[in-house]
Amino acid sequence: MATLTDTLRSETTLDASDINWLRLLVGDWQLLSDLTFADMVLWVPTPSGEWLVVAHARPTTGRMVFVEDIVGTRRVRRRRPALNEAYASRRIVRDQDPGWLDDEGVRVDAIPVVHEGRSIAVMSRCTNPAYLRVPSRLELSYMSAGDALCRMTAAGSFPSSEVPTGQRRGAPRIGDGMVRLDVDGVITYASPNAISALHRIGHVGPVIGVTLAEITTEVLRDHAPVDETLALVVTGRAPWRTEVETRAGHVTMRAIPLVERQDRVGAVIVMRDVSELRRRERELMTKDATIREIHHRVKNNLQTVAAVLRLQARRLPEGEARVALDEAVRRVGTIAMVHETLSKGFDEMVDFDEVVKRSINNVVEVARTEEPVRAQLQGSFGRLRAEDATSLSMVVAELVSNAVEHGLAPAGGELVIEARRGPDPRGSEEDRGELLTVTVADDGVGLPEGFTPQGESLGTQIVSSLVQDLRGHISWARREPRGTLVSFTAKLRDPATGEGR
User: Fold this and answer.
1) What is the pLDDT of residues 154-199, one digit of tens each?
2) How does the average pLDDT of the chain come out, rounded?
């Protein structure tokens, strides 16, 4: 499905600045829909003279009008005159004679979208009069603020390009709590949820008739530090977001200044109590830090074990016992490398390409060859779960070590590790997970006569056992014209859930 930007580029003659303005509007017009209890539909004129629907928002505070998706609609019927008038006059055209849609009356107000003094689109506000009743004070306050924002849209002062990006989770919506400020920052209306949010952060007493700046100053008196954007938001002077954190609670706030004829007449403050959300985030951060510390300590302990084995090996004469301890040191170091990578990340995923490169370098650097060994990695292992990474690191390290110590020694040569990931063609819908295929090829002396994996070294037995645990299979073969080719597969766990095996 084409994006809004793609549609505007292909269907209209709007320039990049106008397209960006419409993107800002669509990114923020849920406010308008929720405040006015109406479906918001964005129409743009096409070069052929048609009106095209490019976006649609439904209210979360009331009943919707359009159940079906109407994006892409071109036939306007009797609505065309109102759209044309609003576009040409740059003023809101209100519908006094509702039409009919699916046997239900629908009232449509046409609101021009003005940018840099020009109409670039029309936004229609669609409501169903059949559902209207005597409005409450909350609904009247909502609609009053929504009407003000619609007038600002027609004047070219909404949306705002000054809203900072990159906000944390928990951005407030209209239903979370709304406060209406006058030009001096005094609260003239506060929804029940907004009052509860202000009480949650420590305010005691009435809210109406008090400045929001006074309330926040009171609750933050003994708390530091304070967000530098706070003063701009609580006075309603700038369309920014901020967070108020006290010992009692945590509230996010967003200010939408209201402008009439270039003069600021007040503001709407949307706020949300995110105390529980921030508490869970802190718990997750603490848990992540604990897990990383555990991986760090496991890595340190494994390195200590490797150092003890290395000291023990140095006390032994040259022979099988010393070789066995040297191999144990390398295997423990490989596992420690995975835990070191996990200790630096924020999840239980490993960038396995980096682990493989480090493992190859470690083996090649200590290779007992008279000529250099050239090693390269083709393809990508990608990011793997820790459970898979530990076993795979052992398998790859053993195969690389065997290829260098037995296949390429002492003449040197070339070693190629290739990795491919993709869906398992034999897997079922319930059996989730990708299939990893890895080949390790060298141009050394090749396999000895009568080679059987079951009767070979401890390293070969370890590799076979780990590949079996990975629900894969492994094969050894001669490589033409010379060398050895080892290929194995592994069924990877699902990155999100850890399932698949």
Assistant:
1) 999 999 877 654 455 557 889 899 999 999 999 999 999 999 999 9
2) 83
State the Cα–Cα distance between residues 413 and 403, nearest whole angstrom: 10
Task: Please give the structure tokens belonging to residue 222.
Answer: 């003994």
- Taking the C-alpha atoms of residue 399 and residue 467, their distance in angstroms, rounded to an integer, is 12
The 10s digit of each residue's pLDDT in 394-427 is: 888 888 888 887 777 777 788 899 999 888 766 6
Contact (CB, 8 A) for 180 and 268: yes
Annotate 131-144 with DSSP letters as a single string: G-----HHHHHHHH
| pLDDT given for residue 101 in this prediction | 47
Residue 179: name the closest of 152, 215, 205, 150 by CA.
215
DSSP annotation of 14: -
The token pair at 311 is 């000291």
Alpha carbon distances (Å) from 360 to 33, 332, 399, 401, 464: 58, 15, 10, 8, 20
Q: Which has the closest alpha carbon to 190: 208, 205, 206, 172? A: 208
Strand residue runs (E) in 191-262: 241-245, 250-260
* DSSP letters spanning 396-451: HHHHHHHIIIIISTTT-EEEEEEEEEEE-TT--SSS--EEEEEEEEE-SS-PPTT-
Question: What pLDDT sits at residue 163?
Answer: 65
CB 490 within 8 A of CB 439: no
d(CA 181, CA 349): 48
- Angstrom distances, CA of residue 174 to CA of 22, 37, 191, 449: 21, 11, 10, 77
